[in-house]
Task: structure prediction
Amino acid sequence: MKYKLWSAEAIESQQKAIIKTITGIDFPFRDKDISTALVRASSLQDADQYLQGSRLLFGLALDNASGRLLDIRGKENSKLRFDPSYATVNLEVYRVVGTVGDVVIPINTIVYVPPAGAGRVREWKTKAATTILNGQPKSPAVAVEATQFGDEYNNIAIGASYFLKNPINKVDYALSTTLSSGGLDQESDADFRQRIKLHWAMLAKSNDNGIEGAIRNVTSGSQRVISAWIQQDFISTRSFIVWIDDGSGVPDTIGPPAQVGDIGSGADVEWDYTASGGEFLLQLPRYPVNKALGIAQGMAPPGFILEKDGAPLTEGVDFSLSVIPGLIAMAAGMAGGSVYHAEYWYRDGLVWEASQVLRANKGTGTWGSVSPVVGKTDVNVTGTLFFREGYNTSYGLQIAIDMITNYINQVGIGEPVLLSALHKVAMTAPGAYRFDLVTPTINTYPASPLHVCRAGTINVT
Result:
């Protein structure tokens, strides 16, 4: 929204012309005339009103809101800024070789990962106590949580070494059994502002912006959708895929594999349906059905099982399956009292939550599914940052590393990491006057349009 700003001189000239037109008299408007003084005073007052109106509209514009004012604008639209979250990882704690006896590692024990280059020492605390039993080389896996929020704690590799900040007798070190994940920074002004705009767009539900806006608001526990990209099927315009990422770029973190079937066999969701009789459609409890995931998890092809009273049914003969909405169409009406049982795999977490949101926001007559990104492309950055005399270089280096990490981890699906942007964010460090970037040497693109770039080793000295 724009507001034309008029100067007092322009208003005065316009008012003089209006007076001459209305009266038909060619007033001379000499400087010392009372008529000139009245017109000039009125023009100054009008100019001030134009100025105040312009300032008001400038202040109300969403693009000019930041910090607390942006939070207020968000609340006006029923949107709250996403809180930061702490990364977690599972560790096995090892004893010193040759020692005996039970060794207890208390809750809130601090461990750390040695920094790469000039990076920050990342500290973690155990969320529960664990014990290395006598005769055992290591403890059962115990969950640890980062002591600070942020995505710089994500993606520490499986098998990474962690060390105790304060030594415990007979304890040597710990190794991670999972990839660290779940750490998120406070939602930035730019991201929050964009989410509010997408909320406005989603009021018209079935367009791309509306769908993306709805998906970008999806959360699951401490996870949230950081980026979303809609891939339209240009052969069949009635279908599309929404690819999502939570900042990790790891499919099994974004949408953990989960099973529908028999709880006794370890399935996450148990499901049976007792037919009333005569119905032809059967809605599965979770969707989309992921046959490829089922086969990867050990199911026999085609990766989906449907039974009637314990007897297997044949897809394509006894029924047809629409995997995206999780709908089964029977070839013949169901027999009353018969029990139908399905077994298959799907993706839980953000993918499942986003699938439900998508179902409520897609247009009539279209099919849309949600899928995690295919994977991540690590971007390793090496360079030297120079500071003016008198500035704290250690503090400045950490600011630069954090800014580079945050920039890379917020790049969208299929988008490149730009050399110009790396230079720009590195130079935000206080006192920096030159940044010699060694690697990468060219803009870094993800492995495919369905991958995301994420920060690897950031070594800035």
Notes: The chain has five domains: 8-60, 88-176, 189-254+352-372, 257-347, 375-460. The longest strand covers residues 375-387. Residues 189-254+352-372 form one domain.
